[in-house]
Every structure is written in structure tokens, then in C-alpha cells.
Design brief:
about 280 residues; alpha/beta; globular; 8 strands; disordered N terminus
Length: about 280
């Protein structure tokens, strides 16, 4: 998981010597910090590690899954620049930076590439400012906003100054839509984002699913729900709805490890995510 849409619920006292940065409640688990823990990072707190461990008890391959999700981001950034000619990106639900970041891959191929990152965790903001350094020819910016409010993202001055919305944009929603309940109508949220982008834009999504292993995923969802989190695993058809009438690129909506892999994966369904990229007509 990355990115934020948790229902805040105080899960107890922080561990000794853990000090909250400004604006951060370290008694509340946060998806970006849990994901950071799975990837071996240090920007997480006791409550995040507790939830992360509970979910790994449910899904022993959770760290592998997080890694496969990151590999997908790298492949998407590479292919969208080198094969599709995309030079500007909107990455909503950025999470704590893990190198190489999307803009590093994109600008490694085209130094003029521009990226706007969006998240609403103060820790992500601190790291974004410190680590997301652009090439002189390109640009890398960060917006503090919530995916549940697409208007605030699309109307943000930084986005408008950085991206040219008359030209195709690569919109990435990586492991974030699972944090929106069906009652929040995430399909309408994504449709609003799609509608704001011009013809030729591309949408990349990864989303966890119970299609591959219902028992393990159900146990993980229960662990997350017990910690006061919103976490929804969706079927192939439910994930496909996020793309609307956009044209799916090959190989379609597939297990995340099977989306244009650099090398053959023994068991593509070992990572319980659907992944796909689609183009706006």
C-alpha cells in the first residue's frame, strides 16, 4: 500500500523515543508509512509496524508484493516516456520516496520531463522537498492534497504551472484506490480526473485483489479494518471500471508482475494486484 485515505483511529501510545514530526499523529497508522516499512524503510512508527506485521501474518508474501508494485512503477515510467512519448506525469498517492522515483526514471530518458506528485502525509512532504530534485531542464513538484478531492488537485496553482493540460499526461494511481470505500464512489473520482486530461493521456493503475487468494486477502483486510483503516480489495471487473472507455494498452489488465515484465516471473499471481494502463481516445 501507499497513500492515504485511512479513517483516523487512535491505536494507542507511541513507542518510547518516537517523536511526532509537526502535523503527524504517530498513534494512527498510515498507509505510506506501512508501505515504507514493507520496503525496508525507516520512516515509520510503532503503530505502522504493528499493522504492517499483522498484514504480513495474513499475507506472508506482502513484502514481495510491495516490491512487485514498485517494479511496475519503474516499467510504466520507462515505457510511457520511451514508447508513448509522455513527458509529463501526475502521480497521485506518491508515498514516501523510494529511489528511483518516477521523475528520476522519466528524466533519465527525457531530461525535460515534468512530474507533479500528490499526497497528504506531512512526512511525505518533508521527503519530497528533500529528495525529489529535478533536472535543470525538467521539473518535479509536490502538492499536499487528497485523492478524494480531485478538484483541489486539478485546480492547484502548482499543477497548472508545472503541467500543460493541453498536452497528454501520464496519470498514475498506484495502490491508492483500495483506500477508498465503495460508498465514496472512487469510480466517479477517477472519472473526474480522466475527464480533465486531454486526448492521448494515459492512466496507470494498480489495485489489490482477492481474486488470486481470497483467504489471505480477507485476513489482511480484517487486520487493516481492525486498526481503523479503509482497505478494499476489488475484482478484475471492478478495477477495469476505473479505466472507463479508455483503450487498454497491451497486455491489458493483468497481474502486476505480468505487465510487460523485464524477465519471466515464476508465479505472476503471487503478487495480489491487478495492473493496467489505458489511453484516452
Amino acid at each position: 500500500m501507499r497513500e492515504e485515505a485511512f479513517v483516523e483511529k487512535d491505536s494507542g501510545s507511541p513507542a518510547p523515543n518516537e517523536v511526532a514530526p509537526p502535523g503527524v499523529n504517530i498513534n494512527v497508522p498510515h498507509s505510506a508509512r506501512i508501505y515504507d516499512y514493507w520496503l525496508g524503510g525507516k520512516d515509520n512508527f510503532a503503530v505502522d509496524r504493528a499493522v504492517g506485521e499483522a498484514m504480513m501474518q495474513a499475507i506472508p508474501g506482502m513484502r514481495y508484493m510491495a516490491g512487485e508494485n514498485r517494479k511496475f512503477v519503474h516499467r510504466v515510467a520507462r515505457d510511457l516516456v520511451s514508447k508513448e512519448g509522455i513527458t509529463q506525469f501526475l502521480d497521485i498517492g506518491t508515498g514516501i520516496p523510494t529511489r528511483p522515483n518516477l521523475h528520476e526514471i522519466a528524466q533519465g530518458l527525457d531530461r525535460t520531463a515534468r512530474v507533479v506528485y500528490v499526497d497528504n502525509d506531512p512526512i511525505v512532504l518533508v521527503h519530497a522537498r528533500a529528495l525529489m530534485i529535478s533536472t535543470p531542464e525538467g521539473r518535479s513538484e509536490y502538492i499536499s492534497a487528497d485523492v478524494r478531492d480531485p478538484r483541489s488537485i486539478l485546480g492547484d496553482r502548482v499543477l497548472r504551472d508545472t503541467l500543460d493540460l493541453s498536452r497528454p499526461v501520464g496519470l498514475t494511481l498506484i495502490a491508492i484506490l483500495m483506500l477508498l470505500a465503495d460508498a465514496d464512489d472512487p469510480w466517479a473520482t477517477v472519472a473526474e480526473l480522466r475527464d480533465a486530461l486531454p486526448s492521448g493521456s494515459l492512466l496507470a493503475i494498480t489495485h489489490p485483489t482477492a481474486d488470486f487468494n481470497p483467504d489471505e486477502v480477507s485476513a489482511a483486510v480484517a487486520a487493516a479494518t481492525g486498526a481503523g483503516m479503509t482497505l478494499v480489495a476489488r475484482t478484475h471487473d471492478a478495477v477495469a471500471r476505473f479505466f472507463g472507455d479508455w483503450e487498454m494498452l497491451e497486455p491489458g489488465l493483468v497481474p502486476v508482475s505480468n505487465w510487460r515484465p523485464d524477465e519471466e516471473v515464476a508465479d505472476p499471481k503471487a503478487a495480489y494486484y491487478w495492473a493496467g494502463v489505458a489511453r484516452k481516445p
